Structures are given as structure tokens and as C-alpha cells.
Amino acid sequence: MKLKHVDELSGGRKRFRRRYPKAVARALGDSVFQVAMKAREGAELFTEHAKLLTEYEKIVDKARRKAAEDGQLSPFEHWREAVKEAEELVAGVSGVNSEDEARQVVGDDLKRRGADPVLYRAVMSPEAEEPPITMLDAKEMYRTERMAGAHGRNQKNRLERVCKRIESSLGSLDKLVLVDLKREHARKLRDDMLAAKKKDGSPLSSSSVRRELDMIRAIVSIAITEHDLHGKAHNPFDGLEVAKANAAPDTEWDKRDPLPRDVILAMRNRMRDKLRSPALGLMDLSRFCAAPSARLSHLSFESDGAFPTQC
After folding, report:
1. CB count in 10 Å sphere of residue 190
2. Residue 93 burial (CB < 10 Å; 0-12/13-18/19+)?
3. 8 A C-beta contact, residue 31 and residue 25
4. In percent, how much of the chain has pLDDT > 90?
5. pLDDT at 231 over 70
6. What is the CB neighbour count within 10 angstroms for residue 97?
7. Statement: residue 255 has pLDDT above 80
8. What is the number of other CB atoms lying within 10 angstroms of the CB of residue 189?
């Protein structure tokens, strides 16, 4: 009989290996639960396998609850993963006459162990209504669809910074239901951002607020599309004006345009030919080019003073 989640190692040894659900893996910082098994055959192998299954379920249950409590796991994502796990548990029950009986067996076991109540509900009521899509789901959808190929931490840090602004103004992301977002939420967030202070105590410029609102608008928009919410939810950030009488003026820094691609390429060629340490210079330029708003003053390198004529 082949045991699930057990594979063969060299020398006849066995290994228990089972992937964590995506959200649990994100919370744990590890994608797989794997243990080299002591037993190799017979009743001892079955007993150890059962213990490892129980240990895996306890780890997943604890991580999932903590992630939900800490706001790392949205109610919708929690429910979807619980339904998937519930189907696996029900399918693994043998010696019963019907699916309902299998669900009852699994449900009784979960209740006895004090397991995740969301998982228990997914086992006993798989057709129950799904939780609504929240801004936390929107954030994760944006991260998956728009930032999957992003390198470096600039964009990821920017996403976290923007989401912290949303939470400080409107509340926890997992409580902000997309279909309930109104224009008043968008105006309040905009006004709070315009009143926010930078580390040096100066207010955010209107152009900085505009850039961050553009990201928020994109976050909501992609969630509406990917979760099929057209007609149920609208994007309250569409067409939202940023300019206000008390807004901080744009600085000369804010007004600088990012360098065009042809200028950056010309800089790369000139640096390769002229720098005393070309490898270090090109490494800095690579990081510089990865920034979403690359500007000349971001660079610091040693050169002969010559720049491409386009600059």
C-alpha cells in the first residue's frame, strides 16, 4: 500500500514530504514540511506516518490561525484554502458508505482536536457562501499579477508603504471589503496622505501623493477584474483629484523627469569605456535602472567627468 506524501530515499529510507498551503507557507517562510522517517516498513511505518500527518495538520492549523489574527491571511483566502484541505481530508476517508458520512467522520475528528473552526465549517458546509473580497486580497492579487517578475525591494517596499497608509487611514486591510468602498473612503485617504509627514517633518508633496494613489487605484482595479466584481464593486479612486489648497507644493526634485531608456543605455556604454572600475559602475547602474523612477542624482560613481551628450 502506497502512503501519501511519502517518497523513497537512497538505501531504502523513507521521507515524509508535504507542501504547505500557499498562505501558510507565506506566514511560515517555508514551503514544505519534510521529515526523514525512522521506520522503513510494517506497522511502525504506518504509525509514524499517522503521527507526521497529525503534526503537519497542527503546524498548518496554528500558522493559519496566527496569519488570520495578524491580518496576513484574508477571510476569503482562509476559506478557499480550508475548502481545498477539507476535500483532501474527506477523500482520504475509507470504509464509509457516502460522502456525507465521510464528512461527518472528518468533522468529528476536527471537533475533538479543537482544529481550525473555518476548516471544520469547510468540511461540514462546503457550499457555504464565501467571505467577501477585501483590500488584503487586492494587495495579494496585485503582488501576484503585477509584481511577480519584479526584482529588488523597491517596488515591494513601496507596496508595503502604501498599504500601511491605507491601514492608518481606513483600518485593517482584511476588514476593508471591496464592494463597500465609497468615494468618501478615497477622499479621506487622500486627505490623510496630504497631511502626512515625511521623516524630516515636511509634508508629502502632491506629486508623491498622486503616485501612491495611482498604485492604490491599480490595486483596486486589478482586484475588481481578477475577482469578477464588475457591476458589484467600483473603483472610488478613479478620477480622484489630488490638488488641494493646503497641499504641499511640488519640489524641484518631484518635478524631475525619469531618464529615458536611450539616455540610460548611452550612460551604460560611456561608463563601461571610461570608468576606472567599470564592473562596480555597471553594477550600480543596474540597480539604478531597476528603480521605477530612475533619476540621475540617484547615481554615485567614479568617472572622468564625461557624460553622454544626451544628458
Report:
1. 23
2. middle
3. yes
4. 35
5. yes
6. 7
7. no
8. 22
For residue 82 the three cell numbers come to 480550508
Question: Which residue do the cell numbers 548611452 mark?
Answer: 266
CA dist., res. 311 & res. 309, Å (int)? 5
- Burial status of residue 224 (CB atoms within 10 A of its CB: 0-12, 13-18, 19 or more): buried
The 3 state secondary structure assigned to the chain is: CCCCCEEECHHHCEEEEEECCHHHHHHHCCCEEEEECCCCCHHHHHHHHHHHHHHHHHHHHHHHHHHHHCCCCCHHHHHHHHHHHHHHHHHCCCCCCCHHHHHHHHHHHHHHHCCCHHHHHHHHCCCCCCCCCEHHHHHHHHHHHHCCCCCCCHHHHHHHHHHHHHHHHHCCHHHCEHHHCCHHHHHHHHHHHHHCECCCCCECEHHHHHHHHHHHHHHHHHHHHHCCCECCECCCCCCCCCCCCCCECCCHHHHCCCCCHHHHHHHHHHHHHHCCCHHHHHHHHHHHHHCCCCCHHHCCCCCCCCCCCCC
CB 298 within 8 A of CB 271: no
Angstrom distance (rounded) from CA 229 to CA 247: 34
Does the pLDDT of residue 188 top 50, yes or no? yes
State the Cα–Cα distance between residues 107 and 102, nearest whole angstrom: 8
Tens of pLDDT along 52-66?
988 888 888 888 877
Please name the residues in contact with 303: beta carbons below 8 A apart, sequence gap of 6 or more. 271, 274, 275, 281
- Closest by Cα among 22, 146, 124 to 74: 22
Task: For 227, list phi and psi in degrees, rounded to 5.
Answer: -100, 15
Tell me how far apart the alpha carbons of residues 84 and 67 are, in angstroms, rounded to a whole number.
17
Residue 180 C-alpha cell reads as 463597500
- The total of other beta-carbon atoms located within 10 Å of residue 32's CB is 10
